[in-house]
Amino acid sequence: MWLKSDRMDVLEKVWTARKLILVVLIPLSLLPLPLIHPTSEACCAYVLIVTAVYWVSEAVPLGAAALVPAFLYPLFGVLKSSEVAAEYCKDTTLLLIGVICLAASIDKWNLHKRIALRMVMIAGAKPGMLVLGFMCCTVFLSMWLSNTSTTAMVMPIAEAVLQQLISTGVADAQDDSDTIEGPDEDSDKEDNLDKNQLELLYRRESCVKQELCTLSEEPNGVPRNTSPGQDFHKQSNGHLPQISIRIPEPQKPAEKKPSPYPTKRDHMICKCLSLSITYAATIGGLITITGTSSNLIFAEQFNSRYPDAKVINFGTWFIFSLPISILMLVLTWLWLHCLFLGCNFRETCSLSKKRKTRREELSERRIQEEYVKLGPISYPEVVTGIFFILMTLLWFSREPGFVPGWTSLFEKKGYRTDATVSVLLGFLLFLIPARKPWPSVFTDKGKDEGAVKERDPDPLAPMITWKDFQRLMPWEIVILVGGGYALAAGCKVSGLSVWIGRQLEPMSGLPPWAITLLACLLVSTVTEFASNPATLTVFLPILSALSETLHINPLHTLIPATMCVSFGVMLPVGNPPNAIVFSYGHVQISDMVKAGFGVNVIGVVVVMLAIMTWGVPLFQLTEFPDWAVMRNVTDSL
């Protein structure tokens, strides 16, 4: 017995230290690879496998695991220390810094809350339209903010609406058919009771003499000293047969488990709205190149690997991904509606005021109260909105493609990127005062300045401070993206990517769409259990080498894989927005798996449709481009 307990203690200690054991054993078990084959390819493969295992298992924090190439590449002689260090700060890092400055201003002055509440007020409180309204505002915010930040901002607003819905449902529980017995059941019970009483009355009248019926009965027909459900017999005079009468026991109502939701339908509404927000955040992140870290990783690795390819910028990505997001938004809304709310769209999506119930009117009133609490639009919100629009316009007009952009006004070409605009406007937010220098005729000056004074008494306080920026800046993602760039640079210099491409030559018989579909399915499966940036960082060099070997336009596989890596929506560990929504307690893992599988299928189908239709003329996918040919020639040399 004591041996069993000791064994359990040892297993428990091993399980507790599993991450430390993994961190130590993985490098040691793979060490023969660079020792037996001391080539650049083998050394680079060793670093790549160790880093990938650390990322997938999360044995160490993602940012810490991204630092592995910084010391292993110089130790194995793959890259110089200065060359590795240069990979950790790229153009996309500055782009992210500028976007976070704008996001800090949006968050500080509650512009996101005003936008979200306004869009929900327009949509109305009908369950179907409410879900669609929240999804639209989440998609719009997620285009410019991170998916995690957007979910964390929108979920409290949705939770307030849901709590209002639940509290109203408790008050109306007596009128809801889901929580009381149906009228048919009540009428059946009454009919049975009347039938029993008539039968007992007939038995009493059938007695010839009053003294023969010696049973004394209670008004309800149950004999004295006789427990309910017990058989008893009437005394016979020798001519009448003895009759056995069974008095049925009164049925006790079934005890129901206490539930915080008044009805099952209310619970379904909570599930649908909660899941719709995390899916909408994922869909919105696909639209812009800065929407997710995965998009940034793709953009930087692609531009680093193919410097002559001037095809990926904010405008081209937006044109390609916007129709994808619109289709996914509509199909995902339809899928969630049918799954949780049913297919009666006329009842859940009607905009008629005559069809509104009491709880829907109270929910609308609650949303309007939250909007009124924000007060009139303030000067900092106006400035933030102007910067938001200005940044978007400058990104679009830099190199639109069909007309000369504003960069053509400069003599030297290729010096200005989207990061230039982002950092410039982000820097200005640290300088512009949060108090307006002139009196306003549209808003109450006292209220406007009072709100600013509560945040900072300094009359020249800027729109954002460094603390505001630092609170939202995801430094772990910056280092993680830098680690991905370092791995890609090592694969390029060592020749590992060329070796991988040669091993994949047997797949040359497959058509391009089949290779793209396999890549999408593989990436979307792995990303359910591993982080999105880590998964993409591992697969991008492999898919690039595969495309070059099979003479397929690399964008044909890289863009779909980049989008599908964001479809880790089936488990709470798939991405941070899933975990945030799951923490509110409205959904279970089975709900996420069931709904997320449908969203996964929708995403893969829509992405494949896009890359086979409007993606072909946009990126010239039918031909093997010159910039990829030059890459092959350089590698062969």
Automatic annotation (TrEMBL):
Q: Where in the cell is it found?
A: Membrane
Q: Name one Pfam family in it.
A: Na_sulph_symp
Q: Where is the composition biased (Acidic residues)?
A: 173-189
Compositionally skewed regions (Basic and acidic residues) per UniProt:
252-263
Bias regions of kind Polar residues — which residues? Answer: 223-236
The keyword Metal-binding appears for this protein: no
Instruction: Show the segment(s) annotated as Disordered.
Output: 172-192, 217-236, 243-263
Q: Which family does it belong to?
A: Belongs to the SLC13A/DASS transporter (TC 2.A.47) family. NADC subfamily.
| The name this protein goes by in its record | Solute carrier family 13 member 4
Tell me the organism: Megalops atlanticus
